[in-house]
Amino acid sequence: MGTCDHMDVYLVRHGITNWNKEKRYLGHSDIGVIKSELSQLNNLQKVLSRLNFDHVFTSDLLRCQETLAYLSIPSQVSIDCRLREINFGDWEGKTYDELKNQIAYRNWLENWEVYSIPNGESADVFQSRIDSFFYELFQQAIETSPGNKKKILVMTHGGVIRYLVSKYVSSRSFWDLTISHGHGIRLTFEHQKGEWVCSSLLAVPFQEKEK
């Protein structure tokens, strides 16, 4: 029995909602997916069902739980509110056209890590809760996992995936990455010299991307 020194983390964005279709900011509002659109996830389901995940984690919001239920992944599932999208505060439910003339909004688009969303979540708080989740994930892998390889599925939101890629893949910035609903990426981590390093990035379910 050894510890885990290699981990594949599959980060998948939930299925589409009405607000997503209308291009409205959707953070902590608990809106479900459009049921008639779920069949578009069939290709993703085929890919993920073959992977034999050690564990599945999901945001507690309805759109993530409904997507995960449709995919029917045979694995233990843990619900974690730290995997939520950022809280958009006063901008929740608004569109770009409704916000584009606000100075606070333009500043946030220019530098989201410095300027906060009015009555919403700051970058520091958003990043800290996601970092907390991943710190625990890595610690558990080191301390408890048999063998030396692990597969984890995380059902979450677009902003969470953007942040994680920008954090662990030095060539990508927060706004560089676009993840469609029902798609995701795989980050491969290796434990090297006491820290977890991302060694590759791959698109899911289309297996043809690079780092």
UniProtKB/TrEMBL annotation:
GO terms for biological process: negative regulation of glycolytic process; regulation of pentose-phosphate shunt. Pfam families: His_Phos_1. InterPro entries: His_Pase_superF_clade-1, His_PPase_superfam, Phosphoglycerate_Mutase. The active site is at residues 14, 85. GO terms for molecular function: fructose-2,6-bisphosphate 2-phosphatase activity. It comes from the Bacteria. One of its GO terms (cellular component) is cytosol. Substrate binds at residues 13-20, 63. Signal peptide: none annotated. Keywords: Hydrolase. The keyword Hydrolase applies. The keyword Membrane does not apply. This is Histidine phosphatase family protein. It comes from Neobacillus rhizophilus.
